[in-house]
Amino acid sequence: MKKTLLSAALGAAVLGFGATASLAGTLDDVKAKGFVQCGVNGSNLAGFGAQDSSGNWTGLDVDLCKAVAAAVFGDATKVKYTPLSAKDRFPALQSGEIDMLARNTTWTASRDSQLGFDFRAVNYYDGQGFMVRKEIGVKSALELSGAAVCVQTGTTTELNLADYFKANKLEYKPVVFEKQEEVDAAYSAGRCDVYTTDQSGLYSIRLSLANPDDHIVLPEIISKEPLGPAVRQGDSKWFDVVSFAHYAMVTAEEFGVTQANLEEMKKTENPDIKRFLGEEAESTIGADLGLPKDWAVQIIKAVGNYGESFERNVGTGSPLKIERGLNALWSKGGLQYAPPIR
Amino acid sequence: MAADARELDGNNRSARALLYNPALRGFFYQALTLVILGWLIYQAWTNAAENLARANMTAGFGFLSGRAGFDLGQHIIDYSSDSSYLRALQVGLINTLIVAFVGIITATIVGVLVGIGRLSHNWLIAKLSLIYVEVFRNIPPLLVIFFWYIGVLAALPDVKKSLSLPFSTFLSNRGIYVPTPVAGEGFNLVWIAFAVAIVAAIVFARWAKAKQMATGKQYPVIAINAAVIIGLPLVVFLALGAPLTFNYPVLGKFNMQGGSVIGPEFMALYLALSFYTASFIAEIVRAGIRGVTKGQSEAAAALGVGPGLTMRLVVLPQALRIIIPPLTSQYLNLTKNSSLAVAVGYADLVAVGGTILNQTGHSIEIISIWMVIYVSISLITSLFMNWFNAKMALVER
């Protein structure tokens, strides 16, 4: 009798504390706990979020996490990574388990509204494509009627696939799995004829197959997939920090600031670059964002500018060898465009 | 002494007596527990509501009428990407029920056979049954499912090199393709004839049993019933001119076109669940049989009844009393383990619900739907098994 009473009272006390939800912003929470909890891809997606054999995380999304940590703390190692599958990424962000989601997540209207997230920065403009075996002899996605298509569940990929085949009056059999490794295994085993996901993912996965040259990526891009970081709604200060971490990287590339010439650039006479790097005495941009004055310098020191991060992770400096394409700077014909840091 | 006795008397109205009154104390503690429980539930409810409001999300089941937008690999009823989320959940529920129902039947048959096998006097059969039980009991069900899925996939040939089986059936790693029967005109009469034949068979079986009880004369019930059930519809079918065509599976550019397919996901899940649960049922059956006193089988042997008939007519009916309660638990376990289907891509309730949860973000509603459905399935199964148990109970004098 006494034991049940005591445990019931303890349980009530714990729940009571939980009921008073923390209304302080995420930026303050992150500063208080001393690190950023970042949700990344748990399936070792080469180029975006992957762990090497010593447990170090690399990738375009991982670089963004490091950039945020560098901006807030001046130290890119103050990040803890939570590997997430497509199914559990949204509950993890909704529940507060992670501070930001950098997991090649497409920005859509319903995710911005119904799921209660905020998107702004797009660190990779992508589109959905198809991969098939060369021996089938198919040259276009319109010839895929009757095929078995492997897809990951809970993604925009699944929905775009259904819409595309319906719009073009083609039949298909969906073979859905929860984890990307299971989809890869099924495609390799021949359970399905076609693999569909974002084109960047297709190139990455093709590398991991037994004979990469046996597979071709079809030319059709059937959707827009703007991939970017997401935070919870109602958290404007943190939202600004995460967005401008990416914009700082793009701005650095626009100004031609690299990891190599960073120290030189700090001594420049160009007022725009001076202000951007926090060298201008009267500028309060850093403080207004809730960050130290040299926040942009720390980001570039940690991960370089956007172009460097791109080339290192998914471009010519990586096995993926993806062209800049849509992800080039706006001045070079691409879509990467940062609002002025002033 | 007398003074103490008077104080401890529950009818005494002093405060100390109230404290020691058992009925009052019982009532007080129950009321207190109820209040605390109510307060906990209230706190959990308001906590959830506050979190939802903070995340700018609405609660409610209205989202179920939204357009699903995704396709499902296995569906018995009509479903397309234009159907609603509610329809998708219904498809998932039907898939779960199918695999649970078929799995339960197979698991029971295999379990009973292996359980009896463990008690066999044949050394080889006994040891093989032992190995089977020990292997499958000790592996987590998810691994068993992966083993069957990867084993099934790896062993079967590619669809372009399918194994050709009789009756235009093809076996490959895309599944078993069978021709679909397409009913022609007047096929309904065959169904009616089939129903009539079944009713006639039941009536005949009862009449033959009553006759056997009364006079001891045995009729070949099984043979006659089989002849009627197969023969009568067949005669009607042929008389109507055989109104039945088949939709044959043919190898297309990618896949087999036409016919029906039993997918490898379903096969892997069904086989894995059946064999996994059968190992538990085997032990329960063995325990039940051992629980029947040895005197029963000795008495049957003394009467000249063979070992097979003894097992079927004397031992098993008595063993059922011991077997049925734990058997109910195993059936419920099988039903709940079917939720592992998401690992192999079978569209069961949890898999479909998970996709909807991800697309709409309404986690709490979906999870409560899951809980309600699984609890309902479990309660219905338990109700049925308890009724069956009551029927099997020995009538004590």
Can you describe this structure?
- The complex is a heterodimer of chains A (342) and B (397).
- Chain A has helices at residues 2-19, 26-33, 60-73, 89-95, 109-113, 156-167, 180-189, 199-208, 236-255, 262-266, 271-276, 285-289, 295-303, 306-313; strands at 36-41, 50-51, 57-58, 79-84, 100-106, 117-119, 124-126, 128-133, 147-152, 172-177, 194-198, 215-217, 225-232.
- Chain A is α/β, with parallel strands linked by helices.
- Chain A folds into two domains: 24-125 and 226-332, Periplasmic binding protein-like II (D-Maltodextrin-Binding Protein, domain 2, 3-Layer(aba) Sandwich); 128-223, D-Maltodextrin-Binding Protein, domain 2, CATH 3.40.190.
- In chain A, helix 6 links the parallel strand 9 (147-152) and strand 10 (172-177).
- In chain A, helix 3 (60-73) runs antiparallel to helix 13.
- The relative contact order of chain A is 0.14.
- Chain B is α+β, with helices and mostly antiparallel strands and 397 residues long.
- Chain B folds into two domains: 2-54; 85-179 and 248-392, MetI-like (MetI-like fold, Orthogonal Bundle), CATH 1.10.3720.10.
- In chain B, helix 5 (123-137) crosses helix 9 (264-291).
- At the A-B interface, helix 1, helix 4, helix 6, strand 10 and helix 7 of A face helix 3, helix 6 and helix 12 of B.
In short:
The complex is a heterodimer of chains A (342) and B (397). Chain A is α/β, with parallel strands linked by helices and 342 residues long.
